[in-house]
Amino acid sequence: EFIRKLWEGLLVQSKPPLTSHFPFPAQIPPDLVDKLERLALVDFRTKQGLECLEKAIRFADQLHVVDTTGIEPMDSVLEDRALYLREDTAVDGGCAEELLKLSRKTVEEYFVVPPGNIPLPKKEERSSMLKHSEL
Amino acid sequence: ASQQLVGVVGLEVHAQINSNTKLFSGSPVRFSAPPNSLVSFFDASLPGTLPMLNRRCVEAAVMTGLALNCTINKKSYFDRKHYFYADLPAGYQITQQRKPIAVDGVLTYSYFGEKKRSQMIRKSVQIKQIQLEQDSGKSLHDDDRSQTLIDLNRAVGLMELVMEPEMKSGEEAAAAIRELQLILQALGTCQGNMSGQLRVDANVSVHRPGEPLGIRTEVKNINSIRYLARAIYEIQRQIDAVQSGRAVQNETRAYDSKSVPMREKEGLQDYFMPEPNLPALIVYEDNASLPTGIDPSQAVVVQKIKDRLPELPGVKRDRLVQTYGILPEHSFTLVNEDGLMEYFETLMKTTQREPRKVIGWVTNELLGHLKQRDMSVSQPISPAHLAELLKLQETGRISSSAAKQVFQEMWRSGGKTAWQIVQEQELGLVHDSAQLHSICQKVVDSHPDEVHAVRNGNKKVLNKLIGLVQKETKGRADPVLVKEILQ
């Protein structure tokens, strides 16, 4: 229902949509850019990259124009499906040998990983690491 | 302004669900299995694998929710909680953040008062929610070689229980967790062993009543009830800090000798998001509310689970008080000590004696010895053997002081019956009146002053003479008979 309403709402909009109904264009503060870069592991703080991000947000802004009053928001496109519940009977597991083969390093039957958390690289470090990945 | 600072404790409990298989995969669950032996492709987060929810885990969470007087959400959702840690290979944990399966419950618990040990204090704490979530794998840190070993066996179903910060002391927190442990064990939804199956984190802060809560610290890895009461020494540490003008830092203090690297929490932007691979979890009130086309054997029906709820600890205590006429604090001890209630009830079936006479033997003598030796109830003296001892005492074959001596001996000898010990050590009461007469005569002859006093009407001195006879016989003389003879 939500998706249908949204879709209809978008279809009736004139093209291009009336930006006067849009919220004020999003401002992207530098620390948010930094955070998104860290999470996405993609470097986009060039002029071109920021324009692209702003356009993407502007594109999504048209959703604000659609009237969704009285319609329950969706949580999933599968929401009309019943969640399948499995019997509590063992039918799987015992794949240790195959799985351990995928690991670069093992000790006895353990996977071996570097100790603790590896923090994401800091801004300064990243600029040198990611200089080849310009948008 | 000089109001006392008080502690505020909130608990977060992770209870491993007692099931045959994991929460989202058909791999078996087994405690202390060889590393990675119970791992499927899903558990290792290989691409293309999907979660398949275990019905048993849903039923266990519903049952636990019902036992804790929660409202069961007929529709609940799964979410992904993202963090990057090697024992969570998917990079996220599937949990229930937006709408958990059970909310708004209450846990009632009791404990012995601090000042008056015999006085029971009854309290309750709100359960904010119970959510289903997947346990992570386990990391073993090898600091020497600077590496971490990963075992993914543990990705079992968890119930996370969040208790509101309403407790004021370590005793309260410990009593609440003990009660929760008993409830989970009665339900069979969690085995409740605190070295892994039932994990407790405490949020501790201090404030003056009526003022906002102070800055809290998290105490993690509390792995026994005794530690829980102790870990909350944190309250005193904070009170001392505030009183001497130092600030309490918001920090995590592990109750653990080794240092554990803390998880790096990412910012809100992507910390939680809805789990796209699992539609909403629906449970139904009763069979009548099942929509057509739903297989009743597939559905989780709350009423059916309600009908299956076993006797909970609180009900057990009330029943013990009613059936045997014992005191509430006795029923508390019987239920709280593993196996003690079963012991007492078996004993009551074999003995003719009054429950009020028997209870002291179980909660004082037996439990005292068990605690001293850190033993469990099943081991040393069977209910049948204790029943025999009680019968010897009741029928006047041994005195009550001798009975305690025999009890000690039964404990030491391991397997000897009370009667064997009574005979071997000549602990039986002397009923032979000729023998007693001669002993009494001897005492009377050697204490002419006392005899004179008794003759002059001083009855108290008679007790002294009886005492002397008992000394002669090492406490084995039948007191009634001795009194008669002396008089």
From TrEMBL, chain A:
Enzyme class comes to: ligase
UniProt-annotated location(s)? Mitochondrion
Which catalysed reactions does the entry list for this protein? Answer: L-glutamyl-tRNA(Gln) + L-glutamine + ATP + H2O = L-glutaminyl-tRNA(Gln) + L-glutamate + ADP + phosphate + H(+)
List the Pfam families hit by this protein, alphabetically.
GatC
Q: What is its main location?
A: mitochondrion
Instruction: Kindly list the GO CC terms recorded for this protein.
Output: glutamyl-tRNA(Gln) amidotransferase complex; mitochondrion
**Source organism superkingdom:** Eukaryota
Query: From its record, what is one biological process in GO terms?
Result: regulation of translational fidelity
Q: Which UniProt keywords apply?
A: ATP-binding, Ligase, Mitochondrion, Nucleotide-binding, Protein biosynthesis
User: What is this protein's function per UniProt?
Assistant: Allows the formation of correctly charged Gln-tRNA(Gln) through the transamidation of misacylated Glu-tRNA(Gln) in the mitochondria. The reaction takes place in the presence of glutamine and ATP through an activated gamma-phospho-Glu-tRNA(Gln).
Q: Which HAMAP family match?
A: GatC
**How does this protein assemble?**
Subunit of the heterotrimeric GatCAB amidotransferase (AdT) complex, composed of A (QRSL1), B (GATB) and C (GATC) subunits.
Q: Which family does it belong to?
A: Belongs to the GatC family.
Q: What's the protein here called?
A: Glutamyl-tRNA(Gln) amidotransferase subunit C, mitochondrial
Which species? Oryzias latipes (Japanese rice fish)
From TrEMBL, chain B:
Instruction: Specify the Asn/Gln amidotransferase domain's residue ranges.
Output: 342-486
In terms of SMART domains, this protein maps to: GatB_Yqey
Instruction: Give UniProt keywords alphabetically.
Output: ATP-binding, Ligase, Mitochondrion, Nucleotide-binding, Protein biosynthesis
In alphabetical order, the GO MF annotations are: asparaginyl-tRNA synthase (glutamine-hydrolyzing) activity; ATP binding; glutaminyl-tRNA synthase (glutamine-hydrolyzing) activity
Q: Which GO terms describe its cellular component?
A: glutamyl-tRNA(Gln) amidotransferase complex; mitochondrion
E.C. number, please? 6.3.5.-
Q: What is one GO biological process annotated to this record?
A: mitochondrial translation
| InterPro entries, per database record | Asn/Gln-tRNA_amidoTrfase_suB/E, Asn/Gln-tRNA_Trfase_suB/E_cat, Asn/Gln_amidotransferase, Asn/Gln_tRNA_amidoTrase-B-like, GatB, GatB_Yqey_C_2, Gln_synth/guanido_kin_cat_dom
Q: Where is this gene product found?
A: Mitochondrion
Keyword Ligase (UniProt): yes
Q: Quaternary form?
A: Subunit of the heterotrimeric GatCAB amidotransferase (AdT) complex, composed of A (QRSL1), B (GATB) and C (GATC) subunits.
Q: What is this protein called?
A: Glutamyl-tRNA(Gln) amidotransferase subunit B, mitochondrial
Annotated source species:
Oryzias latipes (Japanese rice fish)
Q: Tell me the classification of the organism that encodes this protein.
A: Eukaryota, Metazoa, Chordata, Craniata, Vertebrata
Its gene is GATB
